[in-house]
Amino acid sequence: MGGKYEETFRESIENPEAFWGRIGEDIHWYKKWDKVLDDSNKPFYRWFVGGELNTCYNALDVHIEAGRGDQPALIYDSPVTDTIKTFTYTQFRDEVAKFAGVLASLGVSKGDRVLIYMPMIPEAVTAMLACARIGAVHSVVFGGFAANELATRINDARPKVIVSASCGIEVNRIVKYKPLLDEAIQLSEEGARPRACVIYQRPMEKASMVDGRDKDWTALMADAEPADCVPVLATDPLYILYTSGTTGQPKGVVRDNGGHAVALKWTMKTIYNVDAGDVYWAASDVGWVVGHSYIVYGPLLKGCTTVLFEGKPVGTPDAGVFWRVISQHKVRTLFTAPTAFRAIKREDPDAALVKKYDLSDFYALFLAGERLDPDTLRWAEKALNKPVIDHWWQTETGWAICANCLGIEHLPVKEGSPTKPAPGWNVKVVDEANQEVKAGEIGALVVKLPLPPGSLPTLWNADDRFVESYLKEFPGYYKTADAGFVDQDGYVFVMSRTDDIINTAGHRLSTGAMEEVLASHPDVAECAVLGVEDQLKGQVPVGFIVLKAGVTRPEEEIIQEVIQMVREKIGPVASFKTATVVKRLPKTRSGKILRGTIQKIADNKEWRMPATIDDPAILGEIEEALNKVGYAKARKKT
User: Fold this and answer.
1) Do residues 516 and 373 touch, judged by C-beta distance below 8 A?
2) pTM, whole model, 2 decimals?
3) Residue 317: is the preceding peptide bond cis (ω within 30°)?
């Protein structure tokens, strides 16, 4: 006999139409759907077919009409500019309606694309919701992205208008966006270029404008006529979000309007256990999927107050800034990446700064974006004395594949596991022949089709690539490209990307399992393990470790200890004999470690500077560290 979770999960898998149909009633529809799930064109499944709605109306206007227009919708907290500003639902709806009018005056209408290249400022969220209001499709590109990467996205999306700002602000520097945008437009195909660019001039950096093409945000808003919500089909696209493709051609993940609104509103209570009126904070960026789902759409669809934070977990001004934001704004739930907590742990290993703040309103911490190592989990649990919940999802899925669904039933936490599949996600583990493996055996983590509402229905203008990338290798399933296992209790363990399973002398080993061992060393703040080419064994693991602040012991001593720990916990078969101490690890701006690039450097292969890298200088440090241990006789990057 299962509990409430088992019951909910079983219904979602056995009777998805009744399950999601009931949940769909919680959204405002101009016209109700004809069919909850249309599976007539497999593998292209569509949810709420025939239904008409408007996502912006559901995110803003609905709450005002319910009498909650004076409730804060968005709190902008920017330690880098020393600004805190709160918008009520009514104020924010009015801003969004005006900017929707601006877009309409520039010729944007239903189905047109608008590319948004903005820092973490309220105008970015305004632009996203304004697109949704008039049925336009937004594509947010992380602010400060390299010009050539931006150009490939312009070529693919063919935006009618680009919305940008003069600059973004990092801890020690201003990142000028406008020169990057101008270069990207030059690099893009003539037929793909926008007819207009709307530029928000920030006080600390005035960008030069191109006559005839560039328009000033503030001037346009002063004369704007507010626009009403435009009904769109549930199956019409809401946004395109590009994820890096292996071929260098980015993949445009499409999100529909109907399934997305239904699923995200529902997850706010079911997964995060927050209600309308609660303050919810996703410490991410609007350029990433977490920002789309849980800074913008999820909290506002639910009627929460969302926090938009322009800063870093450390350095703006210190490792206590997260606790300050939680305390000051009475945040109930925080969602961020484990890397943020590793940065905080590194600067403040004893969590002394937590004690300065009143966290009595704080309920739970959710982490996602990469594996949550047990050491960071335990540190956060001890520092906060609150539930710390790991959950697993991807840009493509739009929300959690696996989570401890606190709003259904708070299940026991198992270290190293994001708990069980969320309702709607039929997770299986299969071998190379697409056969399910036994409990406890490592294989490819896949999801049985159809995927639930809110996940990607396809890629932008690339149905064949969608099938090729996600559905072809394991027919009948969505390929997550993650490897792991499901234990006897049904808990899912995501060990590593499938390409992080290394083959050492015929043994398949998970680098994630080795990282877990390294992370448990008391002096290690964070780490990465890579498989490096070896003539004798095929691949051997190499460890990179970043030490906690204040560690003065000899590095060689610590390296010997971690090597011994891997030997004891995983065995000599792991062949783990090489580790090196580095000051920091190269990461994307969303906090993911750039393992693929490190591996190419180690294997002496051609590599390209990743567009998403946070600080390119780190790769030079990695090259030096690899040279020290006998790898990477540095071939130059392309």
Assistant:
1) yes
2) 0.85
3) yes
SS3 94: helix
Under 8 Å between Cβ of 448 and 460: no
Residue 321, SS3 per DSSP: helix
Residue type, 6: E
What pLDDT shows up at residue 512? 79
What gap in Å lies between CA 340 and CA 634, rounded to an integer?
A: 30
Model confidence over 138-177: pLDDT tens digits?
Answer: 999 988 777 888 999 999 999 999 999 999 998 888 999 9
pLDDT computed for residue 590 by the predictor: 66
Kindly list the distances between the CA atom of residue 605 and the CA atoms of 135, 328, 500, 511, 531, in Å, as whole numbers in the listed order: 45, 49, 17, 20, 14
Q: What is the pLDDT of residues 249-280, one digit of tens each?
A: 778 999 999 999 999 999 999 999 999 999 99
Which tokens go with 605?
Answer: 């292969």
- The domains found in the chain, sorted by start residue, are 4-311+391-484 (3.40.50.12780), 505-628 (3.30.300.30)
380: Cα within 13 Å, side-chain hemisphere: 29
Who's near 144: CB < 8 A, 6+ residues apart? 119, 168, 175, 177, 180, 589
> Could you give the CA distance from residue 589 to residue 617 in angstroms, rounded to a whole number?
14
